[in-house]
Amino acid sequence: MVLARELTKRYEEFIRGSIEEVQQWIAKNEVRGEFVVMVEGNDHPQVTINNEWESMTINEHVQKIIDDEQVKPTIAIKQVAKLRGLSKQEVYDIYHQLEQ
């Protein structure tokens, strides 16, 4: 963690250490002025995204949105395209080919 103050000025100051060390420094010193706080991010994030639609076909996904949200197919197609990172035209073509 880093506390920085007086950035870009003659008397800029950086206090580096663990959170506990920085807290101790704050407790012992007079804290004046504006500070910037920098904290290191997590090197090993564990992100689990559970999308129930990942196991669905595009047609099933569009139909689920139509049924669940009571919307027209064009609205559902737009939502599916956004969620899946596809163009609306791709989803439209797939949906209507399966519908024929």
TrEMBL record:
Enzyme class per UniProt: transferase
Keywords attached to this entry: Methyltransferase, Transferase
Entry annotated with the keyword Methyltransferase: yes
Single GO term (MF): methyltransferase activity
Gene3D superfamilies: Methyltransferase, Cobalt-precorrin-4 Transmethylase, Domain 2
One Gene Ontology term from the biological process aspect of the record: methylation
E.C. numbers: 2.1.1.198
InterPro entries: 4pyrrol_Methylase_sf, 4pyrrole_Mease_sub2, rRNA_ssu_MeTfrase_I
Full protein name: 16S rRNA (Cytidine(1402)-2'-O)-methyltransferase
Organism expressing this protein natively: Pediococcus pentosaceus
Lineage: Bacteria, Bacillati, Bacillota, Bacilli, Lactobacillales
